[in-house]
């Protein structure tokens, strides 16, 4: 029985050199990004605000800029941390509002802020980004010369995370104690619909993030989970499950 012959040495060497070069470039980009976190004067906050607005009204325009960055700087991922810093500001604002709605003490506010930033956004986002990074590069990539950057996958998560953050952690606050937390059918319908809208935003913006990459195909599969989620949404309303109140109770007992 003949064993398969290994790759020729020059090919193996080139592959190793390519991976080593890509790793060094990724580390260098990460170092530059972290360094810029402390240089507020070099950040374009006006453009970051523009991105946040258009993630609501026209997400496609946001990803056109990612394509322009690829042409000019040879990377899709953000190199300006202004968006990340503004997102953290919204975390503080939303955590303050939710702490007041849940009547949390200061330590509870700190715990809640920590949970939302590092668990809900960073940890879960890193897992989701890694999953999409692996699946797109392994099964959905149409070119062997380029791959999807992990940093870009995490940027897509941050983009998709922002609208649900404002809908569920800011807009909902104006209605929770006076309306959504009640047992009425209309209150349950309104609160669960906010969650359905938020999930739809997340899936749609994620879909746009990968569909704008020429090297990724079959991106419509990212929208498929919306079908079973819609049925879960209907069942929750019929079964009398108030998703907003369930999540509020979860956060309250988690950080109180």
From TrEMBL:
Coarse class of the primary localization is: membrane
- State the family it belongs to: Belongs to the unc-50 family.
Q: Where in the cell is it found?
A: Membrane
Protein's UniProt name: Unc-50-like protein
Q: Does the keyword Phosphoprotein apply?
A: no
- Top-level taxonomic group: Eukaryota
> Which species is the source of this protein?
Medioppia subpectinata
Q: What is the lineage of its organism?
A: Eukaryota, Metazoa, Ecdysozoa, Arthropoda, Chelicerata
Annotated transmembrane regions: 47-63, 83-106, 112-135, 156-175, 195-216, 223-248
List the membrane topology term(s).
Multi-pass membrane protein
């Amino acid at each position: 029985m003949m064993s398969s012959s290994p790759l020729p040495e020059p090919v193996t060497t080139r592959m190793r050199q390519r991976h080593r070069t890509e790793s060094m470039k990724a580390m260098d980009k990460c170092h530059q990004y972290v360094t810029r976190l402390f240089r507020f004067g070099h950040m374009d906050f006006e453009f970051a605000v523009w991105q946040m607005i258009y993630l609501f009204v026209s997400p496609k325009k946001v990803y056109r800029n990612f394509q322009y960055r690829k042409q000019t700087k040879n990377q899709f991922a953000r190199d300006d941390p202004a968006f990340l810093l503004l997102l953290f500001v919204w975390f503080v604002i939303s955590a303050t509002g939710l702490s007041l709605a849940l009547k949390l003490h200061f330590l509870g506010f700190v715990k809640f802020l920590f949970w939302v930033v590092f668990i809900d956004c960073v940890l879960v986002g890193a897992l989701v980004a890694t999953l999409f990074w692996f699946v797109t590069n392994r099964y959905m990539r149409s070119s062997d010369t380029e791959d999807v950057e992990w940093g870009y996958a995490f940027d897509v998560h941050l983009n998709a995370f922002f609208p649900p953050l404002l809908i569920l952690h800011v807009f909902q606050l104006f209605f929770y104690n006076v309306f959504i937390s009640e047992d009425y059918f209309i209150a349950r319908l309104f609160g669960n619909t906010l969650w359905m809208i938020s999930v739809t935003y997340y899936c749609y913006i994620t879909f746009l993030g990968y569909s704008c990459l020429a090297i990724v195909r079959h991106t419509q599969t990212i929208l498929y989970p919306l079908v079973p989620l819609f049925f879960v949404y209907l069942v929750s309303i019929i079964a009398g499950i108030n998703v907003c109140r369930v999540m509020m109770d979860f956060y309250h007992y988690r950080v109180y």
